Amino acid sequence: MSGLTITAVGMALTFLVLGALVILVMILGKVGRLLSSREIEKARGAKKRQPPGREDSSKTIAIISAVMAAYLGKLPSQIRVSCVRRKS
Amino acid sequence: MMLEALKALLGTSGLANLTPGNLLMLLIGAVMLYLAIIKKFEPLLLVPLGLGVILVNLPLSGIMEERGLLYLVYHAGVATELLPLIIFLGVGVLTDFGPMLANPITLLIGAAAQIGLFAAMLLAIVFRFDLSAACAIGSIGGADGPLAIYAAARLAPQILGPVTIAAYSYMALVPIIQPPIMRLLTSQAEREIRMKQLRAVSRREKILFPVISTIFVGLVLPASVPIMGMLMSGNLLRECGVTERLRDTAGSALTNIATLFLGLAVGATMNAERFLRVQTLEILGLGLFAFAVSTAGGILFVKFLNLVKRGDPINPLIGSAGVSAVPMAARVSQNQGQKADPHNFLLMHAMGPNVAGVIGTTVVVSLFISLVG
Question: Domains of chain A: which residue ranges?
Answer without folding.
Answer: 1-50, 52-88
